Amino acid sequence: MIRTAIVGTGGIAGICHAPALRAQAHRAVIVAAVDVDAARAEAFAAEHGVPAVYTDLHTMIREQRPDLVHLCTPPYLHADQAVACLEAGAWVWCEKPVALSLAELDRIHAAEGPALAGAVFQHRYGSGVRHLRDRIAAGTLGRPLVAQCVTAWYRDDAYYDVPWRGTWRSEGGGPTLGHGIHQMDLMLDVLGEWAEVRAMAGRLERDVQTEDVSAALVRFENGAIATVVNSVLSPREESYLRFDLADATVELRHLYGYSNADWTLTARTPRATWEPPDDLPSSHTAQLADFLDGYEAGIRPDLGRPTMELVTALYKAAITGLPVRRGEIDAADPFYGSLNGGRPEVFR
């Protein structure tokens, strides 16, 4: 059995991670829960049948020696916690954003050895996107030409009452990093490597340091051009992806997860068909199954660096007003170490 620990027992742990682990009960067991709030950890353990509770990650690692740790903590804790787990020999499956910067992400990667780390990007694992990738690879939809990637969500002022939200230091960024990253990751999963980004961002409504809306234009290596919108100011919430290919338009409309019913295809030619062989919703449950397969086979999971590089480039382009090309943000670039480029006030 794969001995698993959950660190951070807030909403995402109970709603997504615990059910995903229950679905893998034939090969994984939760041996410990960790939270700085002892009462919350105790309540989580009682609800999910977890035998050991801790308020300190290092103590848990030393006493329980887990094989795998699920990190469900606030973003500013991820890098230190991931490195601690990896150095102790535990694999890591980390909630988004895995890190607050490319520097932190590369620090996690550098700590890998026998133990490896992966990012939670569950939308890659639904049958809809798998079918779309297969159809594009088979050539039945034609080549990708145009895309739209929209994360139009709503977060009110009370949402930002949580102390770590809305700041560069502890949340790392606004909806571009913390919300839209899932849709952008899915877009990259379909379209491949990006080449150039131009962007704008602003703080229009919320009393935060970071942006509350951003918009970008992305050119891909294959020539496709995409528009990207990330917002926490949208009363009618929707996650929307549209791919216009030479022979069809494929659209996905959902909010926090999709099934086959959320996909539509508009065909230009008879060969452009849409018949997924199964209906697997996007979910932590779907991704964890794949992650544990990789764990058992010793296959390196994906930390999502191309997605984080796109997010970083979007911030740099928006803040500097200049286009950013893939690969230009290296260790000497101020945006490598923080998404605001070290500038305390960028959105006024």
Structure description:
GO terms for molecular function: nucleotide binding. This is Oxidoreductase. InterPro entries: Gfo/Idh/MocA-like_OxRdtase_N, Gfo/Idh/MocA_Oxidoreductase, GFO_IDH_MocA-like_dom, NAD(P)-bd_dom_sf. With 348 residues, this protein is of the alpha/beta class. It folds into two domains: 127 residues, Rossmann fold (3-Layer(aba) Sandwich); 157 residues, Dihydrodipicolinate Reductase, domain 2 (2-Layer Sandwich). The chain has eleven helices and 14 strands. Strand 9 and strand 10 form a beta hairpin. Helix 1 packs across helix 9 and helix 4 packs parallel to helix 5. The model has no long low-confidence stretch (mean pLDDT 97).
Number of structural domains: 2
Quote the distance from N terminus to C terminus.
Answer: 52 Å
| CATH top-level class of the largest domain | Alpha Beta
Q: What is the CATH fold-level name of the largest domain?
A: Dihydrodipicolinate Reductase, domain 2
Structural class, judged by helices and strands?
A: alpha/beta
